[in-house]
Amino acid sequence: MEYQGWKNRQTWNVALYLQNDEYLYKLAQRYRTYAPLLRALQIRGITHTPDGVSYADKRLSRRELAAMLRDL
Length: 72
Fold this sequence. Notes:
mainly alpha; 53% helix
């Protein structure tokens, strides 16, 4: 079931914060796939969105997030 055009609410929520938080946006612009971005977030101690969704949630569509990263 889609959520706001994304695979699910978790993917939408992560994409929302990566695109709308200035610090996260500038960090995300450095990456083209999600795995290295996730590592960079974890190194910085950023593990969850302000809404409580884990950046490592297994339900995230990494394919959709990678496509979003390429468009930043």
